[in-house]
Specification:
about 800 residues, alpha/beta, 6-stranded mixed sheet, 5-stranded mixed sheet, 18 strands, about 10% strand, globular
């Protein structure tokens, strides 16, 4: 427990540590490369609206959160956005600072704002004073230490365990002469004499830097931003701990470390105190949106309403398909699935496609073949309830582990300080042929399928039926089953790409959907499950066969798994494979139009090209989430920009499925949408930098170059094609066909989700018979739309 020092009144201690905690919560988590999932970079600001967030991030990060005004002007000139969209957005704004009318708003389009600059740190003031790049010195020094401290198996030497982050850094920093060589005399002594705990260090530094209660919040946030991806990785450690009901102090420790640097800089240059005091006063001022911030938020709203207006015109009530479908294919709601679903339905109109979250409702952590480590195959918002395994016989497991150890040993031999030189001399010529083959993508390695997964310990007959019934109800698949039902997860085949897991399934925690799809197919084909489903009001036809598969979003090939099938059952898959092959050809032809330098015939080669920075576009372009029967969207070409979740509210008697959709898939989709948004409008703060100069560090992230801060977020090549933004930064428009009262009741029950809509991070639009009927307004009210074909 912290012991109070006489110079620190209890109230001051409390307010300072609360400001530190608030700064910690203002930072989004960054998941490691092994299981990267999209994260809302504005996660700590969801309690504020866009204009206020713009003011905050201008102060602490020197970045903007909307497009340059010239981009909105171009949309208006090109007809993508109309004056009606501007008027609607202006009318929706409740700020007293908004432009007085559309004419005034249009006039601002010609007045580009000057780039904003974050309030300076003491290190930046010192750099201006003596010309030394002190922010760079600090970034490199902390980055060098952090790369080793947070290493997850990449380094040959691991840091000593058992120390807190702050203690480990002090042990390092007292021997690091880099700051003193750069000119910060006495830094090692300063660190040695620093308080022994992070909390004490924060309090002492806050006192030395004259950070009062009003100033501490954004001053601390400013330093958190300065730490870049290291702070976001530490925030992930806290996220993981809290999911388990625990806590983690790593991010607070990092704040203490950065404050010790600031304290030392000011102590070494006391003549900067006057200038620094002006910065403190600026931090103490309340964060408030300016008239320009409000105007930019209105322009962003107008761009989003323009997109909604165009989308609304594509929807229709449609008619439920008559007769039994020849085949049903359930895909993940991922926007990339929209293209292949449309293609599959075009190949054979008797095929019915379904959209559902790619973990297929199974909250599992999986233990792959050859390891005891487990992977969470579910949304990161949830905790796993079941454990599955791919382990086979003891002999098979032993062989797999020996092979893995051999590969690791060979890798360490090649990288070790001494043996690496001998390896290059001896084996270099032998690698020439392999180098040529890999460079020309002449050989494509086929991944060996994992053994069929199974639930550890199994499930009782009652649990099987209950689980299957819950999943089928959530998928709106309680009746009308086809003879063949495909459950298709998705993943991506890429080469030499550290962000590989980012192309996989976000609903599966950054893993492919293979495990979830195979587990569900086994469950639904189980005779015990099928006999027990009748008690839940579900009856499956005797000839219905569930088949798991994996859609490779880079090549559009679909692999079907014949887990436990008889020869007769395997024979039934031939026609489905032909349909999937034809649909894949159509999908590749459409996707090739968006990928620079691609054709339908060459697009699959991007998966094996180790120099390819854009193997596919991932979820770039995502702009809408639609939860409705497929008939509402089946005739629309949505361009691979919409998350499509099958949902029939008339079968959802207690609206439990609606609640599940709003609180899980919608939130996950919003994280994806906002990560792309942040990486597009604020790439220096929320983007992953340039892929061409990435270096993987610690197995957790990438550096741009050979040192400095960790880069979180999406690489620039994931949102930009070299000449223009491919991802149009729009906040997600959520469209749900359900009664407004039911949607409102779900939001009232989940205020954290409601705040996303109340503060404008998501749009919410109610559909009725395929047409837009109402728009959600902050505070839980609805704006009824008389022209139901328009969302604006």
């Amino acid at each position: 427990m912290f012991m109070m020092h006489p110079q620190f009144p209890a109230a001051r201690i409390s307010s300072t540590l609360k400001a530190a905690e608030d700064a910690v919560r203002a930072i989004p988590p960054a998941f490691p490369l092994t299981a990267t999932v999209a994260v809302n970079p504005f996660l700590g600001q969801t309690g504020q609206d866009l204009a206020t967030t713009a003011a905050l991030l201008a102060r602490v990060a020197g970045t903007r959160v909307t497009l340059p005004r010239g981009d909105y002007a171009a949309k208006l000139r090109g007809g993508e956005m109309t004056e009606g969209d501007l008027a609607a957005a202006l009318d929706a704004s409740t700020s007293p600072l908004k432009p007085r009318d559309v004419t005034a708003l249009k006039a601002l389009l010609a007045q580009e704002r000057a780039p904003s600059a974050a309030l300076p740190t003491v290190a930046e003031l010192a750099a201006r004073d003596d010309g030394t790049d002190w922010p760079g010195v600090i970034a490199r020094a902390i980055g060098l230490w952090a790369a080793g401290h947070f290493d997850r198996g990449q380094a040959l030497w691991s840091p000593a365990p058992g120390r807190s982050t702050y203690a480990a850094w002090r042990a390092w920093a007292v021997h690091d002469l880099t700051p003193e060589i750069a000119g910060l005399t006495g830094f090692c002594t300063h660190v040695a004499e620093a308080p022994d705990t992070a909390e004490r260090a924060i309090l002492r530094a806050a006192e030395a830097l004259c950070l009062n209660e009003a100033a501490a919040g954004t001053a601390f946030h400013r330093l958190m931003i300065d730490l870049g991806g290291w702070a976001q990785h530490a925030r992930w450690l806290l996220w993981e701990a809290e999911l388990k009901g625990e806590t983690d102090s790593t991010l607070t420790d990092l704040l203490a470390i950065r404050l010790v640097w600031e304290e030392a800089m000011l102590a070494h240059r006391p003549y900067l105190s006057g200038t620094w005091q002006q910065v403190v006063e600026a931090h103490a001022a309340p964060v408030a949106a300016s008239a320009d911030d409000v105007a930019d938020a209105v322009l962003q709203e107008a761009a989003e309403r323009a997109q909604q207006r165009k989308l609304a015109l594509k929807l229709e009530s449609g008619h439920a398909p008559k007769g039994r479908p020849s085949l049903q294919a359930a895909f993940c709601i991922d926007v990339r699935s929209e293209v292949v679903r449309r293609a599959l339905e075009a190949v054979d109109p008797t095929v019915e496609t379904i959209g559902f979250a790619g973990f297929f409702g199974l909250s599992v952590k999986h233990r792959p073949h050859g390891t005891e480590l487990t992977e969470a195959h579910l949304p990161v918002l949830l905790n796993p309830a079941l454990t599955s395994t791919g382990h086979e016989s003891a002999k098979s497991e032993e062989d797999a582990r020996i092979a893995a150890r051999t590969v690791r040993a060979w890798g360490r031999f090649r990288q070790a300080a001494v043996s690496s030189f001998a390896f290059v001399e001896a084996a270099g010529p032998g690698y020439a042929l392999k180098l040529v083959k890999d460079a020309l993508a002449l050989v494509r390695k086929r991944d060996t399928p994992e053994p069929a997964p199974r639930i550890e310990g199994g499930l009782t007959a009652e649990a099987k039926a209950a689980t299957a019934a819950a999943v089928l109800k959530a998928m709106s698949m309680t009746t009308g089953h086809a003879p063949l039902v495909l459950l298709l997860g998705h993943g991506a085949h890429v080469t030499n790409n550290p962000h590989e897991s980012a192309y996989h399934c976000g609903a599966c925690g950054g893993h492919t959907g293979e495990v979830s799809a195979r587990l569900l197919a086994q469950l639904l084909n189980d005779p015990e499950t099928q006999s027990g489903l009748a008690q839940h009001g579900i009856s499956l036809p005797q000839d219905t066969l569930f088949v798991a598969g994996l859609h490779d979003t880079t090549t559009d090939e679909v692999t079907l798994y014949e887990d436990g099938f008889s020869p007769q059952q395997c024979a039934r898959l031939a026609a489905a494979r032909q349909l999937l092959t034809r649909a894949a050809q159509m999908t590749r032809a459409e996707r090739a139009l968006r990928l620079p330098g691609s054709t339908a015939g060459t697009i699959a080669q991007r998966a094996v090209n180790w120099a390819e920075v854009r193997p596919e576009w991932g979820l770039a372009g995502c702009s809408a989430f639609i939860a409705a029967p497929r008939r509402v969207t089946s005739k629309a070409d949505l361009g691979g920009r919409s998350f499509l979740h099958s949902y029939d509210w008339t079968a959802d008697t207690d609206f439990a499925t609606l609640e599940l959709i709003v609180t899980a898939p919608v939130v996950v989709a919003s994280w994806i949408s906002l990560q792309y948004y942040g990486s597009a409008v604020a790439p220096e703060v929320f983007g992953g930098g340039n892929k061409l100069i990435h270096n993987v560090v610690g197995g957790i992230g990438v550096l741009q170059g050979n040192g400095g801060t960790l880069r979180a977020g999406l690489p620039w090549q994931a949102v930009h094609d070299g000449t223009r933004l491919v991802h149009e930064p729009l906040r997600l428009s959520v469209m749900i066909e359900a009664p407004q009262e039911a949607i409102g009741a779900v939001l009232a029950k989940h205020p954290q989700v409601a705040s996303l809509f109340d503060n404008g991070w998501l749009h919410l639009i109610a559909l009725e018979d395929g047409a837009v009927s109402a728009r959600y307004r902050p505070g839980g009210t609805w704006e009824q739309l008389t022209d139901t074909r328009r969302a604006a």
